[in-house]
Every structure is written in structure tokens, then in C-alpha cells.
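Now for a sample.
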Amino acid sequence: MPAVEEVLDKPGLSVEAVPEMRTRGYVDVWALTSYLVLAVIVLIQLWISPGGRVLAANDDDHGFFSFVMAHGERVLFHGANPLFSDRMNVPDGVNMMANTTVLALSLPMAPVTHFLGVGVSVVLLLTLGLAGTAFAWYWVLSRHLVTGPVAAWIGGLWCGFAPTMVSHANGHINFVSLFVVPFIVWQVLRLREPGRAVRGGIVLGLLVVLQVFINEETLLFTALTLGVFVAAYAALAWRTAVGYARRFAAGLAVAAGTALVFLAYPLWFQFNGPQSYSGQPFEPGKFVTDLLALGAYARQSLAGNGVVARALSVSPTEDNTFFGVPMLVMLVVSVVLLWRNLAARAAAIAALVLLVVSMGPELRVAGHDTGVPLPFALISHVPIIDLVSVTRFGMVPATIIGVLLALAADRAPLLPRRRRIAFWIGLAVAIVPVLPKPLPVVAADPLPPFIAQQMWREYVPDDRTLVTVPLPEVTTGRAGMRWFALSGLDYSVPRGYFMGPADPPGDRTGSWMAGPRPTSDLLRIAGAYGRMPVLTDADRRDAITDLTYWRAAVVVLVPGTPNHDLLKSVVSGLLGSAPREVGGVLLWDVRSLVPPSE
């Protein structure tokens, strides 16, 4: 493999390795099986009851991706528009391209969703995402970058089950499904080879298309990392890099053209279609990597401490670094061991650059902003960059660590005996405390008969909506969102948890919920604070206007919701009537508000 040797400066595969290739298939099966077992252990508590439990650390995104799976099922089985949903946020709908809707996963998973339910699809994709990412890196490492399967297995283990991956397994299907990334990376590096521009460019372009329909944010991270890597490698070996430049540029041009053929309309729809938006609902510097998080342990690591992790991380889904001090030491050891490998050095530089970027515009230490400016401040408001949660750039060094560990482990057998033993002991001390624990879950309330037995069909025509109270929003109404997803989106709902414009058409800034409406605001505040508002005639008129706007057929109070009796009084006061109990829920019939023919 001379081309690989040129880039990685590592000992090449010799004819002595050929006998090992005869058993490679068995080793591959063992590697994949081990990753699958570990992934099942991480998700085991959700596997026990996929439809009856929710992830304790992130039931919001668990509900959102349940909706995403149901949307994929409707596309395949009902002919729905894959880029737009009219089932949620009625009457405005949801721009699915402007949300992380993993169409490349939800559509193939549609038969599972159809026959087994959204709960099974969600936990299955989370499991396959972890194991698939680990195995994809193992595959690329074992075929192209290292000579031994043990080194490749170690690299895959870290890339698939690093703290950042396990934390995102709390509902983020998009961020655990990184199995396309190693193939994108390898195809980019292969563009330097003679005769690869057209064939390699087309393959790379198709991989980019696939990744766009899994997670665009990850594709951005990958592109930025490769850009820094190439720049660093060129600085270290300018003459070699210049020799590759023409072939490299030609291949990228072919890849861009190939991707554009498939992505031109979806991307136009994402940024200019209905319910598109720009920017995030928070400042770029709000969610950043804390410097002390590098040496700490994540809450879902074996050595993790919840109190420490909470102080250093923005949420349980964003433990994007948390390598532990022993791993930082082994990272230094690995870089020293690989110092003569120019590609490894360039990779380490890329990891360092993206790590600094993940720290945001100002250095944060132990939860306190120090006032020390960082380079990200210069690019924080650049379009596309301003759509990213900054701390997630920390996923890049986490992945590069896995690659460096694999390369170092591949070199370890060449060390003197004592150093070799010390290396393996150090690697074990670094990895074992970071291994994952099963993710926590909580039991979800069972569906009331009104939903489970589809009693709602008697009350909700196809062109009307079912309004649950609390209304589904970013921080409230989780039960209503779950009902909606588990029903397969058979009925339509107003509002919901999704990304859309804050208050169109005047304000197109990204928001996690629909634009403000008087009634939704009133109900949300009353439910959150447990205070009975003084209802006025204006409030009652607003309620009729909003329910008409939402095309409501019935208003349903979610059983067991916080401040249940107070919300019952509020809705009754707004509508001027008491509810009746139907199928385990309190229901207000408002079909008379909008003529059925309208």
C-alpha cells in the first residue's frame, strides 16, 4: 500500500501480513459483535421497554426523534413529503430539511416503525449508531491505517464509545450515527492518488449526500477538520502537498458537482422554503467547552461523577470532551511515539485547533468565564457557523484521539519490552475509567384509551387538530408530543418541539418552538408557575382566535400533568364550559369553532 505509506509515514503492510488476511473475516465478525454487545449494554434499559420508557436525561429529543421516525414511516407508507410535515405545527407546518430529521435513516427504518413502533426504531438506531460508528472506524483503520486488528479495535472502541458518543446517545440519533464519516475522510485522502479524481470524486460526492441526510452539522465538522489537517500537513511537507494539489482539487470539484446534483433543491428548500430560519435561539458563546472538562470524567463513564460533570457541562447530552487525566497523558505519549509520522502530527494539530474552537469566544474554567479571548470570536457570526452549538466542535478531538491511539498501539510492538508493557498498562488505565455505563431511563405514563384505542377518531376529522394541554413546546407538553409520535402522526397537532422561525414573517431567527400565540403563552405560564390567572374577555377572545387558527377539533387535558386541576380551571374559564371525561382524558369539544367545510 505505497499510497498509504506516503501519507501516514508508517511501516507498510508486508507479505508477512497476508496469512492474517485469511482470518480477517472472523476478526471482523468478532469486532462487530463486541461493539454491538457494548451498544446494547449502553441502551439496555431502553431496550427493556422501547415504547414504555423514555431517556431520563433527554426526553425532549427522545420525543422529537420519535416524531422523526413516524414522519419517515408516513413518507414511505403514506406518500408524505419527505422535506415538509403538515402534521405538526398546524397550520404552518415544519420544514423537515431545516431540522435534523435523519431521512437517510428514518426511511430505511420505516418498515420497523410501521410494524414495531417508533420506540423500537429509536432504540435500534441509537444502538446501531454507536456500534456502527465503532465498526466503521475499525474497518477503515484495519484496512488502510494500521497493520494489527487489536490496534484497529481499540481505535474503533474509542471512536464509537467515547464520552461524547455515549452522552449523545441520550436521544441524539444524528450524533451517534457517524459511520459515514470515516469513509468520507478516507475518500478525501485518496483523492491525491493518480486516476482517482473522477471515480473517487463521485464516490465522495455520494457519501456527502448520504451524510447530509443524516446530520449536516457532522459534515461541517468533518470538512473543517479535513481543511485544518490538509493545511497542517502542507505546512509540514510543502513539496509533497504541492504535488498532490492538482489531483486533490480536481477530485473535490467532481465531488462538489456530484453532491450538488442531489442536494441543490433540498438545500434550497432548507434555507428558503416554508418555515426556514436563520441563526440559533442562543448566542454562539453560550454553550462551550470548559477547560477543566478535558481532565474530568463524564457522568456516564465508569469513573464519572455527576456533580462534577454537571458543573463542567451544559447538559447530559453534551459531555463532548471529559477524557480524564490518564487519557490526556496517553495522548501526549501517543503523539511523541508518532512524532515522525507527519500525518499523525497534522491530525494532532487539527484536534487541538478544533478543541480551541469548541471553547467558544472566551475561555471558561470551572464554569466561570475568564475574559480571556479565544479565536472563535472572530468567526462566531459567520453564516453556517452560527448554526452550530459550539461545544460540539469538541467531538472532533474526541474522534481524532481514537485514531491516534490506534496508530500508537500499532507502533507499540516495536518498543523495547519495558516501554511496551508501560504503554499497554497506561492505555488500560486511560480507557477503562471512561467505558460507558447504561443510560438512565424513566417509565413513561401509559397512553390513555382515548389515544391507545383511537377513540379520538370520533372527534377529530382529517382537516382538524387535537390540542393537548400543556401544548407541546420545547420545555412542556412532552406527553402530548409522545402521544402524537406513538400514534404514527395519524392526527395533526398545533405547535410542537422543532426548529423554526421565532415569529414569522418579521423574525426568522431560529427557535425551538412555534411563534408566540396568546393562549399558548397563557397556558404555559400558568402550568409552569401554578398560579391561576385572572381571565379577561380579551383572553377568551384570544382563545377562540387561537383555537380557530390551530383548526382545533378537541382540547384534551393530559392526565397527571403538573397543576392538572389549575389547567382544567383555566381551559374551562377560557372556553366557558366544563370538560367531559372520555377514554381517560378530560375533553372539550370545539368542533363548532370552524365549519368542517372550511
